[in-house]
User: Which sequence fits this backbone?
């Protein structure tokens, strides 16, 4: 039976969680490939753990989406921007551009996902949706993914394996892809009393100083 929430929030929240599940599956597949390609055991171990986390998140979001709504969410209703994001990551992985992959995956995608989820967590708590422990676990894991990626990239900036100008260019490109995802779900965010433009600004504000460059 679907949960009844005030102000018609259940359906947009359900659809938003379904889109987020798609993002988690993208992150799972990418992390699994990062684990296989990692040149050191610490990174490989972290990426393997991340792939496991992302699968758990995706299944949890799918379950929550179905619980909140009796409707079936067709794939055609999901974010075209997210599909484009997935194609860019896939191309970078295929070409072995691992600095770009970490920027796109751990720095920008995880940043976006953790931002949206943290805002939804506040709203879900306020409305008594439940699953507090599960939501706390997911948020903690998303933050860990982002922080690992940030440290991974900063180590390469320091030892010269990542060029600072190139890094900023790649960050700007993936932030642009993230903007498209937010545009796609702007109506759903409005349905849960959130503002896609504010999210767009906060994605930029949460990036490390070295990554911001000329992003506007």
Assistant:
């Amino acid at each position: 039976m679907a949960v009844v929430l005030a102000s018609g929030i259940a359906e947009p929240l359900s659809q938003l969680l379904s889109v987020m599940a798609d993002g988690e599956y993208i992150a799972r597949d990418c992390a699994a490939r990062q684990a296989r390609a990692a040149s050191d055991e610490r990174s490989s171990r972290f990426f393997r753990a991340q792939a496991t986390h992302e699968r758990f998140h995706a299944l949890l979001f799918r379950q929550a989406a179905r619980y909140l709504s009796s409707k079936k969410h067709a794939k055609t209703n999901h974010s075209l921007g997210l599909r484009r994001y997935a194609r860019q990551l896939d191309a970078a992985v295929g070409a072995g551009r691992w600095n770009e992959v970490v920027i796109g995956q751990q720095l920008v995608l995880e940043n976006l996902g953790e931002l949206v989820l943290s805002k939804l967590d506040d709203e879900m708590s306020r409305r008594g949706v439940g699953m507090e422990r599960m939501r706390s676990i997911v948020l903690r894991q998303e933050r860990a993914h982002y922080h690992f990626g940030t440290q991974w990239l900063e180590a390469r900036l320091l030892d010269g394996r990542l060029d600072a100008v190139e890094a900023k260019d790649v960050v700007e490109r993936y932030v642009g892809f993230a903007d498209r995802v937010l545009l796609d779900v702007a109506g759903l965010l409005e349905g849960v009393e959130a503002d896609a433009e504010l999210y767009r600004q906060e994605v930029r504000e949460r990036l490390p100083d070295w990554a911001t460059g000329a992003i506007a």
Remarks:
- The mean pLDDT is 89.
- The radius of gyration is 17 Å.
- The first helix runs from residue 10 to 37.
